[in-house]
Amino acid sequence: MAAQLTHPPDHHASKSRHERELDALALIAQGLSSRSGQRQMLEEVLAILEEHLAMSRGTIMLLSPDGLELVVEAASRLPDPDRPDLRYQKGEGITGRVLQTGLPAIIPNIAHEPDFQNRIHRRDHQDTGPLFFICVPIALGAQVIGTLSVDIALEDSPALTQTQRLLGIVASMIANELMSRRLAKLERQRLEAENQRLRSNLQEHFQPGNIVGNSASMRLVYTRIHQVAFADTTVLVRGETGTGKELVASAIHYSSPRAEKPFVKVNCAALNENLLESELFGHEKGAFTGASIQRVGRVEEAHGGTLFLDEIGEISLSTQSKLLRVLQEREFERVDSNKPQKVDIRLIVATNRDLEAAVAGKTFREDLYYRIQVFPIHLPPLRERRDDILLLADHFAEKYGQQMNKPVRRISTSAINMMFAYHWPGNVRELENCIQHAVLLSEEGVIHGHNLPPTLQTPDNSDVPATGSLPTRVAVLEKDMIVDALKRSHGSIPAAARDLGITNRIIRYKIKKLNIDYQRLFKSAK
Q: Among 87, 171, 351, 424, which lies 20 to 30 A Cα-Cα from 469?
């Protein structure tokens, strides 16, 4: 429920403009401090601007989650809030230009401005003549996260400039409140993750055997884990996305003398520079708007244990310098504090980036690179450890078979051949997702080739076995091509025959000869 604000008596018309602006800012500050929902809070801000400062058609737009476009978060008297056109791309119209440049815009007469889109409120012609349009960015530092815009009827440009400055102040207040709410959300997520970590540690102690694989390259990884586990040496785990870098970091920690202490994980790519610094080092009470309490950072949480920084190649240069101090001096300072804090941690970092190229391009500090490059462990991509594909597939089939109560007895030869032929750009994580998909579609405890996802269903990944006589391999290829054609035609034999360039009689003969279970595959076919 929106906060009920205490408005002053209705005599503000007799006040000077300066007094009305102060009243409006006081009410906005009161509204922003309420604990109402975000949209309700912003709608209250627009209502205050309209009531006290004679502004109209106020609109607050915020960046979409993917950061590609502005969408309406709050607006005054919007006729249809569910219209699909209530959005702006960067550089599109006046609002999109403010988003792109980060600079405010004043349009003296929107009726004579060709770039004005008139999209959200759709003003009538009689409304557009004397109206001025002011749009200011809502920014966190140098990052524009939204816009605030209003219509206003003013006659002199000095008043327009003054109004722009006022709206800039309001936009800054909104930005600080949005930052505060985002930090509070991250804190809740951190507490939930910490609770989950504690429950997991109580349930089971990590076993290095949980890393599946017996290829020569993985045996080398196991050797490296064993060599470094009992030391406090900084470890750099390198490998493509989905290769299991976090599993290696967990194996090192839980095999070390620090196993009973915290294992704290931070995904550096998931947070922007300001949030990441607060996440790592914490902040003092009052460090910024919304910092109502002192917060302990992840570095301090990991005291006595291990701090794992995933995607370290994504952090900014300023954060890199502070992290370097932690590595060199084992101390840090919370945001807005001058008091150094000592910390005892073991650092493990991971990346899928080319750090050497980043150092050469001046986007990664050379001194930090050498500090984390003490003991590198390289995780090979799945395409370079094909001996492990079947082991991993069996492991995931058993795991998801138990979860779905669909025990998997075996994986068919055709499915195995397709998995061995595929290049696995997503590595072990992609293989796990594929097996989960196949278990869901499997019947009678067997994973067949047609149970695997469409990404594996290509001519290059056919069911042709790698060995066997020519007639056997040709028969398997024929069966695969006919089944695929029938799938594309939804079980229509004439359509499949046309697709393959053969007659209906031949395809029926092949279905019988190759033991294609037409009735089971295409029960609904006519």
A: 424
Mean pLDDT, to the nearest integer, of 27-46?
A: 81
DSSP string covering 173-207: HHHHHHHHHHHHHHHHHHHHHHHHHHHHHHH----
Do residues 331 and 368 lie in contact, with contact meaning Cβ atoms separated by under 8 Å?
A: no
Q: Averaged over 475-492, what is the pLDDT? A: 77
Q: Higher-confidence residue: 525 or 230?
A: 230
Would the pLDDT of 463 be above 50?
Answer: no
- Between the alpha carbon of residue 14 and those of residues 208, 284, 422, 465, the distances in Å are 76, 44, 77, 89
- Phi, psi torsion values for 287, nearest 5 degrees: -60, -30
Structural domain ending residue among the three candidates 339, 355, 380: 380
Residue 274's domain spans which residues?
A: 212-380
Q: Rounded to whole angstroms, what are the CA distances from 430 to 29, 121, 158, 242?
A: 49, 46, 60, 7
Contact 291, 277 (CB under 8 A): no
Question: 370 pLDDT band (50/70/90 cuts)?
Answer: very high
pTM: 0.50
The verdict on 245 and 327 lying in the same domain is yes
Instruction: Assess whether 303 and 216 both reside in one domain.
Output: yes
φ, ψ for residue 135, nearest 5 deg? -130, 130
Of 179, 201, 234, the one marking the end of a domain is 179
- Confirm if 219 and 332 have CB atoms less than 8 A apart: no
Q: How confident is the model at residue 294 (pLDDT cuts 50, 70, 90)?
A: low
pLDDT of 7 reads 46
User: Cβ contacts of residue 266 below 8 Å, gap of 6+?
Assistant: 276, 279, 280, 298, 307, 308, 309, 310
Task: Judge whether residue 81 has pLDDT over 80.
Answer: no
Do 422 and 461 meet the contact criterion of CB atoms below 8 Å apart? yes
Residues 196-229 pLDDT 10s: 766 555 444 444 556 888 888 888 888 899 889 9
* H or E element in which residue 319 lies: helix 317-329
How many independent structural domains does the chain possess? 3
Distance CA 496, CA 477 (A): 16
